[in-house]
Amino acid sequence: MRGSIIAGAVGDALGAAVEFQTIEEIRKAHGPAGVTGPLPAYGQEFAITDDTQMLLFTAEGLIRCLVRFRNKGIGPDHITLLDCAYRRWLHTQGEEPPGWDELTDSGWLHHEPGMHSVRAPGHTCLSAVRDSRVGKVGEPLNDSKGCGTVMRIAPVGLLEPYIASENRFEMAADIAALTHGHPTGQIAAGALAVIISRICLGWGLRDSIDYAIEDIRKRDSARETVEAIEAALSLFRSGREPGPDVVEELGGGWVAEEALAIALYCSLVSRDVRSGLLLAVNHSGDSDSTGAITGNILGALHGAAAVPQEWVALLDQRETVEMIATDWVTAFIHGTGSNDTEQEVFASAYPGW
User: Fold this and answer.
1) pLDDT band (50, 70, 90) for residue 164
2) Is the pTM higher than 0.90?
3) Environment class of residue 287 by beta-carbon count within 10 Å: exposed (0-12), middle (13-18) or buried (19+)?
4) N or C: lower Cβ tally within 10 Å for the chain?
5) Cβ-Cβ contacts under 8 Å for 217 (sequence gap 6 or more)
6) Where is 281: in which H helix or E strand?
7) Lowest mean per-residue pLDDT among 76-85, 313-322, 331-340
8) Which of 56, 34, 63 is closest to 109 using CA atoms?
């Protein structure tokens, strides 16, 4: 669980400096190997982007769901609590979200000064969260299938054992639909959540992917996502030498199914977390998002200790990322406190109303 969150942030930061560059531009600036380690971006040594910001708010919202259930006996209302979480994220982007009140303005995460940085947030996410309506599956706010659905959804896959595996896909699709109305964006998000949930149960990556394909194949509008995953598997089986030219055969990663396919391919061919993340960011596409998703997968597979620690040490907002990762484990593995005082402190940090 910690590995998935931390490695995702590291992958995001690796790609931040080259997100809008072609591989030719990357090589011209950084040499034939392209990105080989941390680079400055947004005035920071090793900056996270909106991808990690939104993943942290996704995790925060899901922790609040658990606190609400434990403290008040109210079942998970993930749509409402995640909608409010993304409003808090919008507030960090310097905007006044709709329905802002003392309940929404609570908890610790959005009061962290370092979170109040604008890091090329996706236009679809911004416009959707600005809307007073709540996007739902079947009631879309737009027709976007951008990768913003997938790059923030890994925490849904980390919910073992609190959410039954058969409900994991639906929860991810619901959360994706808050901002992105196209079914492919929602299905790709659900597929990643299912894959990560299988990994958390001890499955290997190939078996987890096969399970997810069979899960989503029976769903309406799944064709684009299934074809993208199968293309990643086909490239993996081809045995070709991994590199930017091979990665780019799967697309640029700007849309959800392409970002998922690139992350799966990079994870499948990786020797370790380091090599997988570098492959995921060295291409002419959405490098930070594909790096983040690859990190979510490889971090879940190998754990936090397998992430290059010299990279983690440089990570922008490291303390915030690690705090969310630690609090996630506290909430879903150890409980929210051994006594009333500890539980009250935790509930104050993650109020479930």
Assistant:
1) low
2) yes
3) buried
4) C
5) 226
6) helix 273-281
7) 331-340
8) 56
